[in-house]
Write a structure and sequence with these properties.
The complex is a heterodimer of chains A (213) and B (293). Chain A has 213 residues and is α/β, with parallel strands linked by helices. Chain A is built from ten helices and five strands. Chain B has one domain: Alpha-Beta Barrel (TIM Barrel), CATH 3.20.20. Chain B has an eight-stranded parallel beta sheet. Chains A and B meet through α4 and α9 of A and α2 of B.
């Protein structure tokens, strides 16, 4: 019974059916399943499929947004019920589009997928300066800094941030992405990882956390 | 000079220009600065780029107004300067003094997600595009180039706003990427859907721009030509940029794309030109190919 409901919840997230996702979340909770299990065994597996389908071009941005919305409303029901340690989730990521760059659609999708995968995400928005990254990492005790750029003119700023974090002795991993970014660029500027798309970004973030731990 | 659509009807191939953004960067546009503001503060640099394309043989010069809409300018605090930037941009082309070119007013995406998935209201999107289209028309553009679109709803609104608020011909082009599902925009729009949407919305010219390079552009145009009798525009990037010793380099040189340009014309492209990473040398090479046909 519980198993079936969890599977249905995953499917509701995959199909982006918000109302079903809400009612299944409530049903599972009434059946006595802990909030953490509803998240880990129902919502997150659903979002993982969404990520893979997005990566493989089976679905596109609009479908991801619809799924994320279903996920978000269910998560809102669960959040007050999750214990503090559960709510901290997989890890904390500070994410932003780098200084001088105002493009944020790709970055927002990555932030949403990370959130949907259990990460605590602090989104600094666009045009993010190195000081802002450092200040937030310190304040939130973040595990990872994620940087995005769409312009070839702004991607160089990623190196400024990475160098500064290293100089200041921050214990934080860095990951980069965006249209003009490549693995070789990420290597050249000393980033800990590069992700080609939002789905890979989630996988990379999990890998970086496990290395760090 | 005949109106552009009449000229295209005679079967003449028109040559557009190459990149503006990457050319501005080469001339010192600081990282993250607003390129449209350069129309006012560094008009001589913008005009110099236009002139380099006119010298290379362009028939069409696009205004430096890709992001000159209220929503994008707001990110730089310039939301009240749409008309000013659009007017200055068209004047920067006019001041080159060429009587044999068409001035194309460039219109790019708003950069926000439309409702119901995003926050941007359809009516606001319409107003944003209308404001820019009207400003470009009033400044003296001969045609509007709606470019680099990825969502079907957004391109539809941009076309309608342009057609309903100006008397200018309108070209509308989307950016596709080749993946496991074939050619699609990031929003999942395929070429047949794009052609249908753009046609229904009333654009006069259908096209594709930006993207991963000339090889993919050839596939896009091949598919597009089967689906429409309208004039087709093809403006590709010069490949994907690579970071080499601290600067970004586009790898598709004029020599490398020669045959690909011939192919695009054989497939039935009516307007060709370049997007990011292409420069006057790419355009000069295209001019030679067109002249030798």
């Amino acid at each position: 019974m519980i198993e079936t409901l969890l599977k249905e919840l995953s499917l509701a997230v995959i199909d982006g059916k918000q109302n079903e996702s809400i009612s299944l979340t409530n049903k599972l909770f009434e059946a006595g399943l802990p909030a953490k299990d509803i998240l880990d065994k129902g919502l997150l597996p659903g979002m993982e499929v969404v990520g893979v389908r997005f990566r493989d071009n089976i679905i596109f941005v609009p479908q991801v947004l619809i799924s994320a919305r279903a996920m978000k409303t269910s998560l809102a029901i669960l959040e007050p019920l999750l214990s503090k340690s559960d709510a901290k989730g997989v890890g904390t990521i500070v994410i932003g589009t780098v200084k001088g760059d105002v493009h944020d659609i790709g970055k927002n999708i990555v932030a949403m997928m990370l959130r949907s995968s259990g990460f605590t995400v602090i989104d600094l928005g666009i045009d993010t300066k190195v000081e802002k990254f450092m200040e937030t990492v310190k304040k939130e005790n973040a595990d990872i800094v994620g940087m995005s750029a769409l312009l070839t003119t702004t991607m160089g700023y990623m190196k400024v941030v990475i160098d500064k974090l290293k100089d200041e002795g921050f214990d934080v991993k860095t990951m980069v992405g965006g249209a003009p970014i490549s693995k070789s660029f990420a290597d050249q500027i000393g980033a800990d990882g590069y992700a080609k798309n939002a789905s890979d970004a989630v996988k990379l973030a999990k890998d970086l956390i496990s290395i760090k731990a | 000079m005949k109106p552009m659509l009449e000229e295209l009807k005679t079967g003449k191939i028109l040559l557009s220009d190459g990149a503006m953004g990457t050319e501005l960067q080469r001339r010192g546009l600081p990282s993250g600065a607003c390129p449209e503001e350069f129309n006012v503060s560094h008009s001589e640099i913008v005009a110099e780029i236009h002139q380099s394309y006119i010298d290379a043989g362009s028939d069409i010069i696009q205004s430096n107004t890709f992001g000159a809409n209220r929503a994008r300018l707001k990110l730089h605090g310039f939301e009240n300067r749409v008309e000013e930037f659009c007017t200055a941009a068209v004047n920067n082309i006019k001041r080159c003094g060429s009587s044999r070119i068409y001035i194309a007013g460039s219109i790019g995406p708003i950069g926000e997600i439309l409702e119901p998935l995003g926050e941007l209201k359809l009516t606001d999107a319409y107003d944003i595009f209308s404001e820019q289209a009207k400003a470009l028309a009033a400044a003296g553009a001969d045609v509007l180039f709606i470019e680099t679109m990825m969502a079907a709803e957004e391109i539809e609104i941009a076309i309608k706003a342009s057609k309903e608020n100006t008397n200018l011909p309108v070209s509308a082009s989307m950016t596709f990427e080749l993946g496991k599902a074939g050619l699609r925009t990031m929003w999942g729009v395929d070429v047949p859907q794009a052609v249908q949407k753009i046609t229904e919305a009333g654009a006069d010219i259908i096209g594709s721009n930006c993207g991963k390079g000339f090889d993919e552009m050839i596939q896009i145009i091949a598919e597009m030509r089967l689906l429409t009798n309208k004039p087709i525009l093809a403006q590709s990037n010069a490949g994907i940029p690579e970071w080499v010793h601290g600067i970004s380099v586009y790898h598709e040189t004029p020599e490398m794309i020669g045959e690909k340009v011939v192919k695009l014309l054989e497939l039935g492209a009516n307007i060709i030109g370049g997007c990011c990473g292409t420069g006057p040398e790419h355009i000069r090479m295209m001019r030679e190919i067109i002249n030798n046909r």
